Amino acid sequence: MAFLRPGPRREPAIKAPAPVLVLIGAIVAAHLGRILLPAGDSLINEYAFIPLRYSPHALAPGSVLARAIPFVSYMFIHADWTHLIVNCLWLLAFGAVVARRFGGAWFIAFFLICGVGAAAIHLAFNWESPAAVIGASGAISGLMGAGVRMLHIPRLAEPASAGRLAPILSTQVIAFSVLWVVINLVFGLTGLSIVGESHLIAWEAHLGGYFVGLVLSGPFDSLSRGGRTGSEADAGA
């Protein structure tokens, strides 16, 4: 009889939460479908977010459903591989901390709501624009807004699931928000392009998604933790 000595525990190659990887997989699959299908390019006009579609002067606005779908579908359309890869890395970085705290279903819902909010705010500033908006960066900016409230800078050693969210008016949140606004205004007003964002996504969507995420992270945190926040939830775990 032989006894096998257990070897060292193997860590997973990718430590990101499963919901983040599933979301990235869906985004990659959508991109592959768009570039491989014979009529894939026509999907941009149909599923991208185009403000003109919602104008009273739109020539062919389509049904209510046809106008509602692009508020979500635009997040899964990307211009090219660079655009896709940069957004997926961005999602991997900020999505992990949010998914660990909110849990799978709440994380996906939060991502989609931030993306819808980003599109709505872009629409408010670009009414009747014919330019198509695509990409997940507006929604990912919302994850950034939530993430900056979860990462307590003086206590980086603590897990993201511990403690309360940083207040919106805290120094770290205000400082990061000002920096993010300045970066986007510089790119938006000068016409410079952010890596991976050289095509159709707008800086207004970045800021819109960010502030939607910043504000809604509090209610989502409470809901995802059973109405308890901070130390209350930790004590009951």
The mean pLDDT is: 83
What portion of residues is helical? 55-70%
How many strands, what sense, and barrel or not for the largest sheet? none
Strand content: under 5%
**Backbone shape:** globular
Structural class: mainly alpha
Order of helices and strands: HHHHHHHHHH
Report the C-alpha radius of gyration, rounded: 20 Å
Span of the ends, CA to CA: 43 Å
Low-confidence stretches: 1-13, 155-161, 228-237
Total count of strands = 0
* Number of H- or I-type helical stretches: 10
Structural overview:
- The N and C termini lie far apart (43 Å).
- The longest helix has 22 residues, at 81-102.
- This protein is 59% helix and 0% strand.
- The radius of gyration is 20 Å and the shape is globular.
- Residues 1-13, 155-161 and 228-237 have low confidence and may be disordered.
- By secondary structure, the chain is mainly α.
- It has helices at residues 18-36, 42-47, 64-68, 70-73, 81-102, 104-125, 137-150, 171-190, 203-224, 231-236.
- Helix 1 packs antiparallel against helix 5 (81-102), helix 6 (104-125) packs antiparallel against helix 9 and helix 7 crosses helix 9.
